[in-house]
Every structure is written in structure tokens, then in C-alpha cells.
């Protein structure tokens, strides 16, 4: 069974409507309402809402026992102002679907259409619309929600569009595919003073100036090296914007990145030690807070073979180009509960990159994504 021309037109309209009304992580209430209304028209056996926040999950069951197969997409947009000129551009200032989650939602909505027409013979298909992917909080919240105990997938699959790859080409490998990462917020506190008498205070200036190159120096090797680490300074602020005050406080943000979770602990320890020793050397106190914590995403061998079999049956070209990649994806957490794998679907070699202000999801990928997911479901569940 495939999508009709009418299906594709309606899914494209849905994608563009979602694009016009983006919501950032944790604020996806209206997006979830729209998704719930769409899924309700396709008669799932069960429909969970408010899952891990604003998450939505629809279940389609077969008549015979079998595995539970989860397909996941994301609800959230980005706090970036869209500069594109398409008629369906964002109507929300400072917010845009500039990562393609609107397209991923349309793909799962298309899969719901096909499943409503022909249910799986056995087992269950679960379509999960996950909140808060961009902050790394959503998958953990979904997995921690008691409602998710009723889902308990055996397999979990996801896709992400991938600018830089030819349109419709798939990148897929077993093993790590995206990095672990976390945001480090450092607050240095000393004592402010009058700018004419800086010696009466304790300024964080020298410590802040040293920490920026110091953290960056923790970076090591390339992505394929055993000890790969990357520390990127992303923000710095010192004192109020005034001329009469020698500052007594500073804030520094950095992102730490490793290929796998087990390597992150060593990088975190090195960064925390550097901050502690630097603060002490300059008579400051230091506080560290962690944000946007992403586990690495690792493709299970069996789940990867299942995707490969589906791609071969559909005649879709695939290889491992561009993988693993430095960006993070919180789908990796589902690999702790199921055999999980993620594929990357080419959005065009010259397409604007993810998170660029002029990015827009290519509508031509909607039927391709639906075909891939539907084939996986059919191969596993009949």
C-alpha cells in the first residue's frame, strides 16, 4: 500500500501548517493538539497524550501476538528567526521549524494513514511524537513517564533529514551515529568594586580570560580517533554593562562533546577540575550547572539490518557517508529500552543546513520517509 496523490497533497499541507506555527521545546501544546486531531481521524487503537510533557503516541495493533515497533518523530522547533520567504514561513517571531521536525511529523502522520487502512497482522506499531528533542530533555521525560510502561517497545526507529546528502539518499551505519554532548554553565563570583579602585574588589576577568582557551584546549583528535573530545565556548559575560564598576561576577557557557557516553565522564572531570583550580587561583568561587544533556545515539546491529533490508526492497541507495556525526540527537536514549536505529535521509547536496535561518524541509521527502517506515513495519509485523 502506498500514499495516493491526494494523501501527499494533504500531508504537504499539514507540514506547511505546522511550519507556520512553530513552538520551542517544552512549549509544544498547540502542536500536540494539532497532531492529536490528525491522528484521531486515522482511528488508532489507543492514543496517549501529555506523554513526557506534550508527547503524543498512537498505537495500531494486529490480531496476533508479536513485537512492538516504535517510530518516533519530534514536536519542537528552534528559537531562531526564520529568514525564508516561502508562503508557509513561520508566523511566530524568533521561532522556526529550522531542523525539519515539521516534516518528520508529516511522515508519521502519513504512516498513520496507511496503518489505519491496513493494520499490522501481528504485534503493535506505536507512532511517537516526542517533545523537547532540541534540549535533550524530551526522550528522558517520555521514558520516565508511567504511561510509557504501556508502550515498552521491542524495536525503535527514527529518521532525520540530512542536508548535504543527495535528495532521498540514505546514510546508515551500525554503532555510534551522533555524539554525546552537554552544556556547561560556569558562574564565577568574586567581589565588585568601584572602577577607580579595582584593587578593593576581586575581579573574575583574568580567570574568565584563561578559562576560554583552557576549556578549548581540552579538545582532542578527530571524530574517528579513540580519544575524541570537543569543548566549544559558546557564551561569555562579565559584570553589568557599566563603566563605573569593576566586575565581581562572570558567566561562561561551553558545550562538551564526545563520540560515546563513556568518554564524556573523563571530559566532564577534566573541565570541572580546570574550573575549580582556576577559580581558587584567583580567589573566586565557582558554580557549575549542566544543561541540554544528550546521550550518544548508537544504532543496534539488528535494527540497522532491518532498515537496510527495507531500503534494498524499496531500491533506495544507502551508504555510511557523513557518519558518525558531531551533532547530538536524544533518540539515543530509546536504545536503552529497545533495539533502536536511526537513518539519515538526504535533503539535497546544496540545501541550507539544519538550524540555518533559511532552512525549510523538502516536501518531496515526505512520501519517501513514509515508504521506508511502512516497509519496516510490514517486514516486522506483516
From TrEMBL:
Residues 182-280 form the Peptidase M20 dimerisation domain. Signal peptide: none annotated. InterPro entries: Amidohydrolase, Bact_exopeptidase_dim_dom, Peptidase_M20, Peptidase_M20_dimer. It comes from the Bacteria. Keywords: Hydrolase. SUPFAM superfamilies: Bacterial exopeptidase dimerisation domain, Zn-dependent exopeptidases. The keyword DNA-binding does not apply. This is Amidohydrolase. It comes from Roseovarius ramblicola.
Amino acid at each position: 500500500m502506498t500514499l495516493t496523490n491526494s494523501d501527499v497533497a494533504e500531508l504537504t499541507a499539514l507540514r506547511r501548517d505546522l511550519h507556520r506555527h512553530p513552538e520551542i521545546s517544552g512549549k509544544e501544546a498547540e502542536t500536540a493538539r494539532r497532531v492529536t486531531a490528525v491522528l484521531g481521524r486515522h482511528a488508532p487503537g489507543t492514543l496517549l497524550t501529555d506523554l513526557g510533557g506534550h508527547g503524543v503516541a498512537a498505537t495500531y495493533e494486529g490480531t496476533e501476538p508479536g513485537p512492538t515497533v516504535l517510530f518516533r518523530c519530534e514536536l519542537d522547533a528552534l528559537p531562531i528567526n526564520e529568514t525564508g520567504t516561502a508562503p508557509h514561513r513561520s508566523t511566530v517571531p524568533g521561532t522556526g521549524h529550522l531542523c525539519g521536525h515539521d516534516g518528520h511529523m508529516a511522515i508519521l502522520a502519513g504512516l498513520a494513514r496507511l496503518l489505519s487502512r491496513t493494520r499490522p497482522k501481528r504485534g503493535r506499531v506505536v507512532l511517537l511524537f516526542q517533545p523537547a528533542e532540541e534540549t535533550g530533555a524530551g526522550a528522558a521525560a517520555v521514558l520516565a513517564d508511567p504511561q510509557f510502561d504501556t508502550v515498552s517497545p521491542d524495536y525503535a526507529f527514527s529518521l532525520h533529514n540530512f542536508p548535504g546528502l543527495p535528495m532521498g539518499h540514505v546514510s546508515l551505519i551500525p554503532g555510534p551515529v551522533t555524539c554525546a554532548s552537554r552544556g556547561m554553565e560556569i558562574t564565577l563570583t568574586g567581589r565588585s568594586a568601584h572602577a577607580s579602585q579595582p584593587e578593593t574588589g576581586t575581579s573574575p576577568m583574568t580567570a574568565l580570560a584563561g578559562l576560554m582557551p583552557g576549556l578549548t584546549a581540552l579538545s582532542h583528535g578527530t571524530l574517528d580517533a579513540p580519544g575524541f573530545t570537543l569543548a566549544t565556548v559558546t557564551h561569555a559575560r562579565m559584570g553589568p554593562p557599566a563603566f563605573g564598576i569593576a566586575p565581581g561576577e562572570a558567566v561562561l557557557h561551553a558545550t562538551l562533546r564526545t563520540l560515546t557516553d563513556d568518554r564524556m565522564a573523563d571530559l566532564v572531570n577534566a573541565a570541572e577540575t580546570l574550573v575549580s583550580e582556576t577559580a581558587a587561583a584567583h580567589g573566586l568561587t565557582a558554580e557549575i550547572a549542566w544543561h541540554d544533556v544528550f546521550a550518544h545515539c548508537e544504532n543496534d546491529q539488528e535494527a540497522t539490518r532491518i532498515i537496510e533490508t527495507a531500503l534494498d526492497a524499496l531500491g533506495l541507495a544507502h551508504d555510511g557517508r557523513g557518519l558518525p556525526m558531531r551533532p547530538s540527537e536524544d533518540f539515543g536514549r530509546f536504545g536503552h529500552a529497545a533495539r533502536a536505529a536511526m537513518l539519515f535521509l538526504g535533503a539535497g547536496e546544496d540545501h541550507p543546513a539544519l538550524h540555518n535561518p533559511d532552512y525549510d524541509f523538502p516536501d518531496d521527502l515526505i512520501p519517501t520517509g513514509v515508504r521506508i517506515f511502512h516497509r519496516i513495519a510490514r517486514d516486522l509485523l506483516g
